[in-house]
């Protein structure tokens, strides 16, 4: 009887995934195979060549919500990690970084202090991989947050709070612009934060390189999207956007998608829980790349051409990911 209890749900999940994938590939508005390469060898060591920018949207496969983590590797070899997923998937993240030859993270960014964005940093701190932290000036009452703050102190890692209209210089060639949160919004809340407040106080970051730009959105909700539209207008436009709040239904308003006007959206989410948002992007002509379908997504550009590689063109039938060992 026990074997049936475990076997039946796995069959249901498998059928749902196959049905979703069939729908995904039948829809003419998503033609990812035409301009995106499937490549399981994404984790070869990175080398700076003075012209190529790399961005990885990691798929941290875990039974429950695994969170977000993205790596930027500049043409000069400067490494930036935006978020680090949950504690339980930290060995996967560490393995990815090791295989990419990343010995040190020059700039570690926590968009906001929720577990699914800072949990993996605990391991990276213990592995002495972090040179500098950047974060919003937002406290959070949780064991993970407290441990993270303590480890930053134990390892004597310098850190800096970021606010809208500031920037992070990446070596000599690139700069990340900070679009959110504003100091005024933080002062208005005066240290009393709900879950929604913390999400809306996420760092929103924009990186531009040549003809392409990349928007990183943390977990902002649609009301914060509207504030950003009012504040920045066309400055929000980007070639690639990370779906806010993992593609959740709290976010990705039609107004926001139209204002950003992306060619691609990376959705670090369970697409079966985000089909309405995925469809919203489709209707507006955006190519959607959910990491739980395509695995890790690797962007590569010299400022003119943009190459996108994914771990898979379709989900593996056994749902097993070829994760490099730590």
UniProtKB/TrEMBL annotation:
Identify the residues that the record assigns to the Metallo-beta-lactamase domain, covering every copy: 66-275
Known Gene3D superfamilies for this protein? Ribonuclease Z/Hydroxyacylglutathione hydrolase-like (3.60.15.10)
Against SUPFAM superfamilies, the record matches this protein to: Metallo-hydrolase/oxidoreductase (SSF56281)
Task: Please provide, alphabetically and separated by semicolons, the GO molecular function terms listed in this UniProt record.
Answer: hydrolase activity
User: Keywords of this protein's UniProt record, alphabetized?
Assistant: Hydrolase, Membrane, Transmembrane, Transmembrane helix
Asked whether the keyword Amino-acid biosynthesis is assigned, the reply is: no
According to the record, the segments passing through the membrane are: 5-23
- Record keyword Hydrolase present: yes
Q: Per its UniProt entry, which superkingdom is the organism in?
A: Bacteria
Read off the PANTHER family from this record: DNA INTERNALIZATION/COMPETENCE PROTEIN COMEC/REC2, RECOMBINATION PROTEIN 2
What name goes with this protein?
Answer: Beta-lactamase superfamily II metal-dependent hydrolase
Organism of origin = Bacillus oleivorans
